[in-house]
Amino acid sequence: MKLSSLLVIPAALLLFSAEGGAQDVASVYKQRCAMCHGADGSGNTAMGRSMKLKDLRAAEVQAMTDDQLYEVIAKGKGKMPGYEKSLGADTCRQLVAYVREMGKKK
Ligand code: HEC
Asked: Which residues lie closer than 8 Å to 82 by C-beta, 6 or more apart?
């Protein structure tokens, strides 16, 4: 049981990136950010709750400028790692736009 679920996860990730392309921002978010911030940005995950994350869709976060959001995503802040080196500046910019999209969906 355990072994089979360990095999399913990488297979699903492979299918996922083959479908959307490795740089597809939604899949980047799911792979890199959702474990803390939740797939919907709510922060309602075990990690998110333990770090007392804000809802990324909340007015407080959406009130930040694009540059401020970029700064956190690219350089990191507190317990959040920075992603500029691993993902590149362009993808970090797209993640800012993705955070805005989630804000509109609430
Ligand atoms: C290890 C858990 C973790 C991961 C993974 C993570 N974050 Fe964060 N994130 C945090 C924490 C903690 C903060 C709050 C930092 C602070 O204010 O000290 C934060 C803050 C933010 C903020 C600023 C809003 C706020 O709540 O202060 C944005 C935007 C954000 N993260 C987006 C992302 C994106 C996009 C990714 C993926 C590329 C990501 N995060 C990955 C933990 C994480």
From this structure: 73, 74, 75, 76
Ligand 1 centre distance from Cα of residue 29 (Å)? 11
Residue with tokens 């998110």, as numbered in its chain: 48
The model carries a pTM of 0.84
User: Which protein residue's CA is at the shortest distance from atom 30 of ligand 1?
Assistant: 73
Domains in the chain and their CATH numbers? Answer: 23-105 (1.10.760.10)
pLDDT 10s digits, 66-87: 999 999 999 999 999 999 999 9
Q: Measured in angstroms, how far is the CA atom of residue 72 from the centroid of ligand 1?
A: 7
Mean pLDDT, rounded, for 38-47: 97
